[in-house]
Design goal:
heterodimer; A: about 525 residues; alpha/beta; Rossmann fold; about 30% helix; about 25% strand; B: about 350 residues; ABC transporter involved in vitamin B12 uptake, BtuC; two-stranded antiparallel sheet
Chain lengths: ~525, ~350
């Protein structure tokens, strides 16, 4: 880890700092998204911001851009003369005015307007008698010429390719005279060729004096195209170095950390197969929901960790096991019995307990009571209903017992579930799932966004289920979590599964990034 | 700077307080045009009050007017609970009314003990079909039910005119587009001597009570609420979302159909194309004022019927246009919507930007 301040600067650039983030911190409830992060950016520099999902990269950039208000810290941006001035925080307009432009991962373009209108949208006065489109067009064409960001200006944006749309987004920022450009995972949606073009354009723009921060977790492009690398982990900046001094291994180690949390676990031999997926393919709407011919066996007494970078098919795998999607090919069997008709209800009946990724959106009905959410998966159960009528008293007393047992804290089981904190919502879901003693548990990002205590509780419950003889599929983007809990690890990449056959952090990190074939 | 922030919990008093306060604010605001029209608002509102509570007859007229609003209000409230936007209660009402005259006006001359229940069931079934069809299009093809149910209203109205000048036309009507009258034994019995209020009101009240109970206490109601509040979680939990939507569509359409049965077989006796002065649409307002609660629908229907009947009477006494009623109803709806926003969010004033974050 090299400190930048006193390190040599082997890359050609002037020494003037254009952006300085000092001690930025942001908490969401009990979760620390950013803790005392400081960064500097020089004129004409390309800084890569690296980190796993949930490391706090996007939160940091959102604070810079004024979308979030930091709890502590300050942002200074250089004005046109190069003097650093404090940026008023929490005001996107102020950030725009100071020359900070951001291109989000999900584009914010009006698809029915052409590129020219999209670029000028919002930077024109609301009540102008006439729009000077000719001047706007001249300015944009000038930018295109200097940067090489080619995009057809007269075609509705809805008909452009993803790469072209991204260039329109960047042009939009440059049109507003951005001197600092933030790109949030710019290559996530691009083909390799488009990505290469993008980086060529970026280099042309930096010659022009533009400074760029790009967020990524692809080691290859970071090493190829950045001047300097900063690594975030668990909301903290854990390292910073000149790209010329970095190599894949050192960055991978920095990203995933070196401290595996010790979890007390019994040594257990894996039992008989609980769930088998054979040749499962899912044609998802996007890469994150797509699976290609996946074979997977989960045994009793075993936690299977599915590691991978976000959006490589984890969604598809989880949706198949949850019964939410029909695979286009393949078979699923539980305890050697194939499941004929896949549906969430059939999966619950087959003994699969599901902990969904988005617990607020899929896990609970927020406006219904805690007790109702506890029984929502077993409405056919005679303990819950008789002749189609709910047994309110039984439901309440049973839910109170469960809440006690699983330590669900909140204003009581008759209160709306949305009043619970994230950790307690997860405990509610755990209670609902574990109460039925499932044969197989699907835990999708079970600790994301949870504080340490709640996360540890989730891990303890999963280990408990493993001891009881259940099989567990643990999908997580937190490699620490997988290394700490899993008996066996597979890496998911581009919708396929690769057996890792190791618990070695660096090897798995490189497999996740697709650097070893 | 003023900021808007979601509330963690809506205060309990809001559920009752918002509609009541909205009604009062709407009446107060409506006083302004009353003054411009040259009327003393206090006297005018006094006339309105008398027009509803001044005599037993006036009161019974208000109940008569409230009856179809209860049916259409329940139709909207239940569907909206499942986020199924049934805007087609007006058309479903006419489907129910057509079914009622089709079988009630002489085809089957049987005892009322059989005929009346048959009319009710067929009317409800016709309305149910009228809502099940757009729901099928929604579930199967993703067609937006707001559009399909709304447009279906006009299609059904034109179909009605065709029927009233064709198969359903009364041969004795001398060419008027109206149906033959429902047989006497097929009529909903009146509740009071020489008054128009009929037993359709009792049916509406019973159904409101049943709906309230089923919504809160039955597995059916549980599923319906879950689908409406968070369809993703409901599906994930194994609830059959399509089946829930169809169930509520059939019930919602059936209730709207009953509004038509109740008007034809309870009040008018025969069917014309102006049977409903927009009861289907007003039912949506009733449901919103009621906060989508079935018991609330009863209260809201009584309120809106009072405003309309009272305004008619005031208009006669003071020469002020009875359009005032529409004004009061629409303003109370706006007030309820604003109130609903305040129930979900609180408005915070802070001097310094972001100081309260």
């Amino acid at each position: 880890m090299t400190g930048l301040a006193n390190g040599p600067a082997p890359f050609p650039m002037t020494d003037s700092t254009v952006l300085k983030l000092t001690g930025l911190s942001k908490r969401f409830g009990s979760v620390v998204a950013n803790d005392d992060v400081s960064l500097t950016l020089k004129k004409g520099e390309v800084l890569a911001l690296l980190g796993e999902n949930g490391a706090g990269k996007t939160t940091l950039m959102n604070m810079l851009f004024g979308h979030y208000l930091p709890d502590a810290g300050s942002v200074d941006v250089a004005d046109e003369e190069g003097t650093l001035r404090a940026l008023p925080l929490g005001h996107p307009q102020a950030a725009l005015g100071a020359g900070v432009g951001m291109v989000h991962q999900h584009f914010t373009l009006a698809e029915n307007l052409n590129a020219l209108d999209n670029i000028t949208l919002g930077s024109e006065p609301l009540f102008a008698l006439k729009r000077d489109r000719a001047a706007a067009r001249r300015k944009i064409e000038g930018i295109i010429e200097r940067s090489g960001l080619n995009a057809p200006l007269n075609v509705p944006v809805g008909r452009l390719t993803v790469g072209e749309r991204q260039r329109v987004e960047i042009l939009k920022a440059l049109y507003r005279d951005a001197r600092i450009l933030v790109l949030d995972e710019p290559t996530a949606v691009l083909t390799p060729q488009e990505a290469d073009t993008l980086f060529e354009n970026i280099q042309a723009m930096t010659q022009d004096g533009l400074s760029v921060i790009f967020i990524s977790h692809k080691l290859r492009e970071v090493l190829a195209f950045s001047d300097r690398i900063a690594v975030l982990r668990h909301g903290r900046k854990v390292g910073e170095m000149a790209t010329s001094e970095a190599d894949e291994t050192s960055i991978a180690r920095m990203m995933v950390g070196a401290d595996t949390p010790k979890v007390a676990r019994a040594e257990l031999a894996p039992g008989k197969p609980v769930m088998q997926l054979a040749g499962i393919s899912v044609a998802g709407r996007s890469k994150r929901d797509t699976l290609k011919d996946v074979d997977l066996t989960v045994n009793a007494h075993e936690i299977l960790g599915v590691a991978g970078i976000s959006g490589n098919g984890q969604g598809g795998l989880a949706r198949v096991i949850s019964g939410l999607v029909h695979p286009s090919a393949g078979r699923i069997s539980i305890d050697d019995r194939p499941i004929a008709k896949l549906s969430p209800a059939a999966m619950v009946k087959a003994g699969i307990g599901r902990i969904p990724e988005d617990r607020h959106h899929e896990g609970i009905v927020g406006s219904m009571s805690v007790a109702e959410n506890m029984v929502i998966e077993r409405l056919d159960d005679p303990e819950v209903q008789r002749f189609g009528l709910l047994r309110h008293d039984e439901i309440r007393s049973h839910s109170e017992e469960l809440a006690q047992e699983y330590d669900v804290r909140g204003p009581g089981v008759t209160a709306s579930a949305r009043l619970l904190s994230g950790g307690n919502i997860q405990k509610l879901i755990l209670a609902r799932v574990f109460e039925r003693a499932p044969r197989l548990i699907l835990a999708n990002q079970p600790t994301r966004g949870l504080d340490m205590g709640a996360a540890a509780e989730v891990g303890r419950r999963l280990l408990e289920a493993r001891e009881r003889g259940a099989g567990v599929v643990l999908i997580s983007e937190d490699l620490d979590e997988i290394l700490g809990l899993a008996d066996r690890i597979v890496v998911i990449r581009d919708g396929t599964l690769i057996e890792a056959a190791t618990h070695d952090r660096e090897t798995i990190g490189l497999m996740m990034a697709g650097e070893t074939e | 700077m003023i900021r808007i922030e979601p509330r963690a919990q809506t205060p309990r008093a809001f559920a009752v307080g918002i509609p009541v306060l909205s009604a009062i604010v709407a009446l107060a605001l409506a006083a302004i045009p009353l003054i411009f029209a040259g009327a003393n608002p206090i006297v005018a509102y006094g006339e309105m009050f008398k027009g509803v509570f001044g005599s037993l007859f006036a009161f019974s007229e208000m109940l008569t007017r409230a009856t179809p609003l209860m049916f259409t209000g329940l139709a909207a409230a239940l569907a909206f609970r499942a986020k199924l936007w049934n805007i087609g209660a007006e058309g479903q009402l006419y489907l129910g009314a057509m079914a009622a005259v089709a079988i009630g006006s002489g085809v089957l001359d049987i005892s009322g003990v059989v005929l009346l229940p048959l009319i009710i069931v067929c009317g409800a079934a016709a309305g149910a079909v009228g809502m099940a069809a757009p729901t099928y299009l929604k579930v199967r093809f993703g067609a937006d039910e707001v559009v399909t149910t709304l447009l279906l209203n006009f299609i059904i109205l034109i179909f009605l005119q065709m029927m009233l000048e064709g198969p359903l036309q009364d041969p004795m009507s001398l060419g008027w587009p109206q149906s033959a009258p429902v047989l006497d034994q097929g009529m909903l019995p009146p509740l009071m001597e020489r008054m128009r209020v009929h037993s359709g009101l009792i049916l509406a009240l019973v159904l409101a009570g049943v709906a309230q109970f089923m919504l809160a206490r039955s597995v059916w109601g549980f599923k319906l609420r879950a689908v409406g509040e968070n369809v993703a979680a409901a599906r994930h939990a194994g609830i059959n979302v399509k089946r829930s939507l169809f169930g509520v569509a059939v019930i919602s359409g059936g209730l709207a159909g009953l509004a038509g049965v109740s008007e034809v077989a309870g009040l008018k006796g025969y069917l014309t194309a102006d049977l409903s002065p927009g009861f289907g649409y007003t039912g949506i307002v009733v449901a919103m004022l009621a906060g989508l609660s079935p018991v609330g629908v009863v209260v809201a229907a009584l309120f809106i019927a009072s405003v309309f009947v009272g305004a008619d009477s005031m208009s006669r006494a003071m020469g002020v246009s009875s359009f005032l009623a529409d004004l009061v109803v629409s303003m109370s709806l706006l007030c309820v919507l604003i109130g609903g926003f305040l129930a979900k969010y609180r408005i915070i004033r802070s001097n310094k930007a972001g100081a309260t974050s």
